[in-house]
Amino acid sequence: MRFIWPDFLWALVSLPLLVALYALVLRKRRQAAVRYASLAVVKEALGARQRLRRHIPPALLLVSIASALIAAARPAANVVLPADYMTIVLAIDVSRSMLANDVEPNRIHAAQTAAREFIRELPDGVRVGIVTFAGSAQVVQAVTDQRDELIAAIDRFQLQRATATGSGLLVALATLMPEAGIDLESMLYGQGFGREGGRGAGAGTALADPKLAKPTAKAPPKAAAAPVAPGSYSGGAIVLLSDGRRTQGPDPVAAARRAADLGVRVYTVGFGTPNGSIPGYEGWSFYVRLDEEALKAVARTTEAEYFYAGSAADLRKVYQSLSSRFALERRDTEIGALFAALSALLALTAVALSLVWFRRSA
Question: Would you say residue 276 has pLDDT above 80?
Fold first, then answer.
């Protein structure tokens, strides 16, 4: 717990003074009671229980004052609350390796089924966008809260060659945060953005060729926002599912660092068994291997989590776990109202007990 106005806490030093003042008042009353023997006899007859009662209302009032002073300091805490608004972008691998039949009936069919269930189980306040990636990445469904449109987009998945995991992550990031001014053209097709060992993504060669580009007036580039703490963005997250290794496009870990700078968490899901294969594809049978290390690095960089799903049932459980996470969110919330309410309750209780225990007839 932290305090927005911590200087108000200095007022708590007055509480011992109030206790000392209360003790002084009691002492003077006892001295006055000694002068009247009859009053002393009456108090003795009341017993220890009655003498204890008279201290309870002042004690409650003292705690009430302390609670009010804490409320004035505006305490805030990181608490779990229902998500009022959140956007989730699903980035799903649609490379040819998703034809592997190590998951019944095959990986792509199982992934589509699990994604449909995930969307149906999300809370009403959550909006979803869908990005697919293979040799290139594209938005197949813009962010929406219409579940039927999302399901229809999943049904339209088409498999393609190659795997550009980093491209899928960057397009998902731009879909989640369009206001961030992410320059997808330079990140996907430019030079130097984590492209070690990778080729251009899709039509990137044509876009990067100055001979083919027509001279146009460009607006000055938008200044990049200052990096924030990884995982601090509470407006949404990315869920990236892949079953293979990157074969082209930007490095997904470099793309993850960009997401981390914006505070976006990227939950990654590795799908398929270690010995998955595509039998009889174009006259060849070949193995497809999951790159767990890269997916773990993406999740770790963005302060998120990595999940492994080796079967359709595992994948459904992963999506169910993610759905429950997105129904609730942790955020810094001011809780001064709770202390103020406690202060009022204690003060009212002190007054009520005083009236019940010590009322005097007129």
Answer: no
295-352 confidence digits (pLDDT tens): 999 999 999 999 999 888 999 999 988 887 776 556 667 888 888 999 999 999 988 8
Euclidean distance between CA atoms 71 and 341, whole angstroms? 9
Contact 26, 58 (CB under 8 A): no
If pLDDT is split at 50, 70 and 90, which confidence band does 208 have? very low
pLDDT at residue 177 is higher than 60 = yes
Q: What is the pLDDT of residue 328?
A: 59
* CATH architecture for segment(s) 85-310: 3-Layer(aba) Sandwich (3.40)
What residue segments make up the domains of the chain, in order of their start?
2-78+334-358, 85-310
